[in-house]
Amino acid sequence: MSVDMASPEDQAAGKRRPKLPKAGKTTTAPEDTAPDVSGLVLGESPEVIQDELSKYVPSVECDDLPSKYVPYPPGSKISYKPYTFGEVLNINESHLSLKQQFNEVLDGITTTGFPKKQLTVPDFLYIGLQRKISTLDTTTFTAAFLCRDEDCRFTNQMQLTTAMFEFEYMAAPKLPVVVKDFPNLGKLVFDPLRVSEYLELMEQDKDHQAYMLARMCRNQDFLKACDAFFYATGQSARTLRRVDAQLFHGLNPIPVTCPECKRETELKLDGWEAILIPFRGQNEPDEDLLSFGDEGDS
Predict the structure, then answer these.
(1) What pTM was estimated for this model as a whole?
(2) 286: burial class by Cβ within 10 Å (0-12, 13-18, 19+)?
(3) Coil, helix or strand for 251?
């Protein structure tokens, strides 16, 4: 079996671990003034009012992404807006499902050249973090911490700064990633997991990494690929890990020291509560995390 992969030079470039980039160019609201709502009729639907007021929220262009825009058509553009005060109130007073959480983030994202639900999941999470940071308008905020040592399991709130954030570019220089020959399946064609596909898997309780890889395989029957990937061993398993590593992109875990047991551990920023939802106060740490690449088994 073989995998079409980046050259050593491309891999070295793809494995750069830059700091979280500064926000892109900001598009200011019209005349930078408070919105004129005098023309809105009392009793107007919340959707109409929200659409009108959203025109006055500045938009930030995403100049850089963990995927390097490779999965999207040439000329594609992505921008986002900070959460508004009304959105924050709605989130704080609601118990949102995973799908609702995604929709809260998607509402503040604009894409040109492709549907926003075709964002890759890691890019989506990265933009979610950017939305939260732009809303807080600060370089320091709090995240829920859970010690991963089985003998400790200490939970607490930890202060983070944006200078601690690093993300990893996708190693694959172009898509798709192709496995030329896989046992019982033959040629495999892979492309990163999209938001719409991830939500579909979660609705079916298919959150195992084998299911995600099967969904990313574009030229095989999903259930057939699930069986083959789930029971893969030896060289087949190594090939799948190589594919996963080539498609990995997103935020890296932050090295931290547990305040309780003093052991070195990692704070992963890929849990939904840590990234997507702003201003929730003292959240319980979320163990149901989504990870990509070889570290997903840890």
Answers:
(1) 0.73
(2) middle
(3) strand
